[in-house]
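ugh ok so i messed up the first submission bc i forgot one of the chains. this is the corrected input, ALL of the components this time, i swear. 1172 residues overall. if the numbers dont match what u have on ur side tell me asap before i send this to the collaborators (the ones from the other lab, u know who)
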Amino acid sequence: MSTTVTDADIGRLLLHCPDRPGIVAAVSTFLTRAGANIVSLDQHSTEAEGGTFMQRTIFHLPGLSAALDGMNREFADTVAAEFDIDFRFTEAAKPKRVAIMASKTDHCLLDLLWRNRRGELDMSVVMVISNHPDLADQVRPFGVPFVHIPATRDIREQAEQRQLELLRGNVDLVVLARYMQIITPSFLSRVGAPMINIHHSFLPAFIGAAPYRQAKDRGVKLVGATAHYVTEVLDDGPIIEQDVVRVSHTHTVRDLVRLGADVERAVLSRAVLWHCEDRIVRHENQTIVFGRG
Amino acid sequence: MSTTVTDADIGRLLLHCPDRPGIVAAVSTFLTRAGANIVSLDQHSTEAEGGTFMQRTIFHLPGLSAALDGMNREFADTVAAEFDIDFRFTEAAKPKRVAIMASKTDHCLLDLLWRNRRGELDMSVVMVISNHPDLADQVRPFGVPFVHIPATRDIREQAEQRQLELLRGNVDLVVLARYMQIITPSFLSRVGAPMINIHHSFLPAFIGAAPYRQAKDRGVKLVGATAHYVTEVLDDGPIIEQDVVRVSHTHTVRDLVRLGADVERAVLSRAVLWHCEDRIVRHENQTIVFGRG
Amino acid sequence: MSTTVTDADIGRLLLHCPDRPGIVAAVSTFLTRAGANIVSLDQHSTEAEGGTFMQRTIFHLPGLSAALDGMNREFADTVAAEFDIDFRFTEAAKPKRVAIMASKTDHCLLDLLWRNRRGELDMSVVMVISNHPDLADQVRPFGVPFVHIPATRDIREQAEQRQLELLRGNVDLVVLARYMQIITPSFLSRVGAPMINIHHSFLPAFIGAAPYRQAKDRGVKLVGATAHYVTEVLDDGPIIEQDVVRVSHTHTVRDLVRLGADVERAVLSRAVLWHCEDRIVRHENQTIVFGRG
Amino acid sequence: MSTTVTDADIGRLLLHCPDRPGIVAAVSTFLTRAGANIVSLDQHSTEAEGGTFMQRTIFHLPGLSAALDGMNREFADTVAAEFDIDFRFTEAAKPKRVAIMASKTDHCLLDLLWRNRRGELDMSVVMVISNHPDLADQVRPFGVPFVHIPATRDIREQAEQRQLELLRGNVDLVVLARYMQIITPSFLSRVGAPMINIHHSFLPAFIGAAPYRQAKDRGVKLVGATAHYVTEVLDDGPIIEQDVVRVSHTHTVRDLVRLGADVERAVLSRAVLWHCEDRIVRHENQTIVFGRG
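and heres the new structure output, hopefully the right one now
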């Protein structure tokens, strides 16, 4: 069953808790008694015994919107209390409110805006924030507000302050679509929404400037990209998605950059799609992507 | 959680039935009451409403072997009766008994034997049947009986009769590892075990002899393979797995054959692996492959 | 060496002829004597002996534009005459003039326009022709003329007549970017430029309407696309590029359509890129793609 | 044209030199005058101007074996002297003499032996050297000598001495097929043949023990392998081939190890195939793989 159906009566329940017998039964019995039909159920345990249990359940419940507050309370008081469950109910019909941050390159930003216009992503892009004005003209046709907030090392604090004023409370997700400024731990702790980032990946990794030049000189046969949640450790948060493309000595540095951009936009789009579909559970420094594993 | 753990106490429950509310709850409650801990649960509905519901559940139950007969009876009388469920319990610790049928080419046969020797496949290869003696020497080091049963159009009936005498009741699965003789509907109906076949696949398809020569002349850029369950319609049963490899004008027909063999052995091995792990449910002319979708 | 360098002094020589000893020597000697430095040379013979020989040579020659007419004449009179060579010199600095024909879906069209704006494709899009007005707003920001020419079975002749008036003599390539009308042999013979088409591909192939629905019902594990030159045989011209993406039972028909669109735009973009870089030689019903094989 | 044709009269010429105009013409003219027909020619320049030029030429020359010594001398005295060319002529009909070194795991070793028996690789495996006796039984059916030379840190010098006595002068290539002992710079400088190694690759890289466990904990979505020439810098020689396979949270560490082994044997086999076909030129710390780029 698709979980991208944006039916007003489709709900999603994500939960995780210490693993022990009876959780699936308790949760599914709760939903059945509430009048819901389970459309899809995925679960994962980190260990055969004694690990963390995670579950994503998609259900159909006529009158979901009206019923959700009550279900939340009742689930908290009963099943969640008994099994020590962290959980969240969401409605498929309520798209995530997303802010996209970009700099000068357009490939990741435009791919997200274009997919969203096609109806591929369950999100509402509430604003694009950029530290450069360059992409304003390209964003405008999509009808999305473009906010230019200059940001350099010297004015980082003020820039982040302005960004936070726009973002806090207004977004469910921040996507860094090749935003080329450092995100401080302070910003991360205050923004109040998860952040997804994209970066190129090579085997082996290359440190420093001009990574595609280095990749060319090293003769790598694969060029890749990684989308991950942003944590305080730079480029080292939980990986959501990765992919690579084959390259050879016949590709110039310019070709590598072009192919790298293709992988980046594909990988980031998938990561955002899956996040918006509530498919992703974070566990320690990894992700579980339900239904796309 | 892995479902390949060959623990004596790991059970698998596969079921399908008309979709309606309450199935997941009923099944998981049954297992919990039986003392089982659900290790992994995958399900799929063919339609949002009114379709077919399928589920694969992996559970841990101390003393499984002894308890299984009772569980079978009780599940049939209660949950299965109520929801009109077709089901089957299996034990992860009991490898499938598999016969492999081959002709002259070794790539699919040897890859299965080699993977099995490494412990990658939950199967016990009880015999290799071939219509040619050529591969006997290669099978021998694996300690598997090799049975040569000549088979041509003229002696098909006698050949199938001999094959059936060996197979019936002795195997849980028959793998056609590039077995180049026709399987008759009569054989299929009497063999008493599912059969998996592998064949090459091209875009577009090529009819007739020398498909790699045709693919070369047509300048295809991909060469592929498809593993499927055998039905009465030749090469048209439910698809289990497919894959392709890139080729170009620099590849000779001989190169295409080599690359095609690589894809074939990889695709067939995955299909057999998934079958042996009870991951596959057949529904009409398609398959659902739980946990590898 | 890159062959996408749009240097005014970079030339390309594509040729094919009956294979016999001495061609490479004669051609390279000609270029060397003309003062050119060979930057890249790819060749291919269809058979070890007695087949067709094809070669793509990239060379650097100061003052190329001024020298080209003379080289053309001299090469024709000497090397080409001796070896019975069909050839064509092109300048890397002169982008191909391209018309894109589309209908209502935007993915292939926009991907080409966007890549072209980024400078990824050596082409100049001189017009977009559509049988529907729907995509006009999306094309406008790219600064490319959008021409709406209604076309149905009943008015096909008039529609093709209007299209030909726009295209003949004005374009080096016509790209069918999901243009959903039949192209008649008459149009093809009169348009005066090669045409590239894109279509979805499945294993097995599906005839008739709603191919993604059929693919879903058949449970295919791969969804693909094929870009090819248009010939009089529908969807059966020389294949330029193909690719696939993995799918599973967890994907809805809508997901398949989305993933299919991703493959289509990627495959079509690569085909157009390679054509514009003069990498492709057509031979019988196949293509040789130099440097990307 | 295939370059794997093991025709007695097929020769290969590999060369590299400082780039300047006229090389292709001079080389092809030399071959034509020698009576050879150029079957295939690939070349690569590291820079548009002033870089290194490399070329691989496959040619057909009746009576090649007898003619080769003379050609070698004449080419050295004329073309090579004029253009400062490093070159080597080889005969396609003379398979490379290869030694394979392994430890306890069989996947890379057996895949090479099996492909060689099928005639896929232009090599003659003259011996298998292992620091453990475990794989002797598996090597025996292939008719290849298995030599057990214990090797640990304490007896490294003696072990390498014994290995060198077997290898020096007897092999054209040494393949490390999961040989789990350190190769010393001294060994490398004395062995007198290039060495190819295979190792797993992850994004990001994992240092230390149990890399698949680390990859599992990190939640990587790709598992890969890299084949490279051995240099004094551990695991950092020129990359020949790389590939990856997708994994997810549903895969156990055991699954990752199995999938990693699949990628390793595929990548190593391709690297060895290409080396034996004289497709690979090393340049600084990278490789050019002609015809498979």
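quick check: The domain at 96-289 of chain C is CATH 3.40.50.170 (Rossmann fold). that seems consistent at least. Residues 1-6 of chain C have pLDDT under 50 and may be disordered.
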